[in-house]
Amino acid sequence: xxxxxxxxxxxxxxxxxxxxxxxxxxxxxxxxxxxxxxxxxxxxxxxxxxxxxxxxxxxxxxxxxxxxxxxxxxxxxxxxxxxxxxxxxxxxxxxxxxxxxxxxxxxxxxxxxxxxxxxxxxxxxxxxxxxxxxxxxxxxxxxxxxxxxxxx
Length: 152
Hints:
alpha+beta, 3-stranded antiparallel β-sheet, two-stranded parallel ribbon, 6 helices, flat
């Protein structure tokens, strides 16, 4: 890990853990609701296909990274995004921004100039996806040791 982990208080660490546990419980409740609509056996083929389809927009390299960048950093211009996303080429960033816009997750905003100014920002749909992914991101930060309790 290149950077030191974020050290948080015991109380805040517990709050993060509680929020992660709440998200897991909500996920279990949602699964239970969906499973309640089956009269017989759960249609595993449909469930897997629907889940994979739901995540398809996130399955491509750089999509999650772009969404996370805009969620954390806010509206950004192309070169600002490129500077925050180490290792992405201009061509790939352009292609992924287009795909994210077509999926309704981000909006390309053009301000007439001169000079013309183009920025990218999350749509309402993109912000909601970011909020829903937040507990997963927090869970992964804790599991990877990027967030730890204070060392006293």
